[in-house]
Write a structure and sequence with these properties.
The protein is an alpha/beta fold and 412 residues long. It is built from 18 helices and 13 strands. It has 2 domains: 123 residues, Rossmann fold (3-Layer(aba) Sandwich), CATH 3.40.50.2300; 262 residues, Rossmann fold. Bound molecules: adenosine-5'-diphosphate (ADP) and magnesium ion (MG).
Length: 412
Amino acid sequence: MSGQRNVIVVEPDPHLAVTVEALLSGVHPVPELLAVADVEELESWARPTGVVVAGPSCADKQSLAALTAFRDRHPAVRIVLAFDRRPGAPMRDVVTIGADALIDPTHAESLRGAILRAIDLADGLAAALEAAQEHAAAPLGQVLTVCSATGGCGKTFYATNLAVALARITGRKVALLDLDLQFGEVMTALRLRPQHTMSDVAAIDDEGELGTYLTEMLTAHESGVWVLPAPLDPAEADRVGPEDIGRVLGALQEQFDYVVVDNPTGLGEGTLAALDRSTHLFILAALDLSSVRNLRLFLQTLDRLRIPQDDLSLILNKDQTGVGIDAADIERLFPRGFRSKIPYSRQVPRSMNSGVPLFASEPASLVAGGIVEGIVDLLPQDARDAARELTEVQHVPWYRRMFRPTPAPADA
Ligand SMILES: Nc1ncnc2c1ncn2[C@@H]1O[C@H](COP(=O)(O)OP(=O)(O)O)[C@@H](O)[C@H]1O
Ligand SMILES: [Mg+2]
């Protein structure tokens, strides 16, 4: 952080600057020393971070007021008043300037100590300011919402595994929010014992406070995913309104790269609130007629809500043959097609009953492959390669995985 260690002396008499230079000669790293004649000239200072040493000529009411205004505009600047006499201004003006010290400049050791302390404070402030700016500039996380027109399509299975897959593939910060407020199953599917749930977090209506306490109210899953489960008591669901959902999602987006949202079936007001914040929507369907019929209505409603087509993907779950309808039949009805097809597998209910997500225990399974297929195009380039490597492993036929080719024996 070069350039922040500036010390600028404000005094027409050059003696003070010479004294300060001598006092700081052994300091490491050496601060950059500048000198100006009066407070007005300070305004031309290009890098207003560091320490202002104001000499005795600044001890009048007008200069103190100008210094106060300067400090207010540049909060990372610290001020040392080097006055050898009581200033010709009320003590109140000296106090409002927020100076770090009022020191007689003829006391060399005290002046040195005061300037060094102010340099430390200025360094700290500059670092904090930089961090705050970086934070403010950080893009908001993506909100990936999982929903479906019919129950039992596998939303909770998909949402939990999607979150685990994102954490594993991208290594970025992932949160999982259960908006199935009455009968949420995320907690069971991940075998968690949460201290706090969505109803506790939604009760914090001050955005600043929410940002401060949010992370400690989430429950960590061993995969690295941070979970905010649905309330333990279904009666508490009523206490969470759509505005609360928007506010909590906003706070999660500020702190996480990905926020995966599990939803109840259909398009209730909670899901609509999540849609407002969503960057991508995964709509699940299964292989049955009611799923297909309701999917059409669901898509028509989303169209009326003007959800951009590019921001939604259809996922076919429980794909299998021999149930009287297959993926090709549905694809004829929905020409946009499915972003991925996840096979029917008994591994899924088994994993949900045991509380260990399938993506964590069987990342090389076809089910996990289907999940990766659904997100790979939405990932940053570096993570796509990692995701494809995973899928490639999955597509090696089982017999090749079991019987690795042995090198041909060398000719005798
Ligand atoms: N691909 C799959 N293969 C087999 N069973 C599945 C699959 N996906 C989900 N299931 C099972 O279907 C049931 C409903 O899944 P769930 O995720 O709870 O659906 P939803 O949240 O949409 O109501 C669960 O018993 C789950 O284990
Ligand atoms: Mg569910």
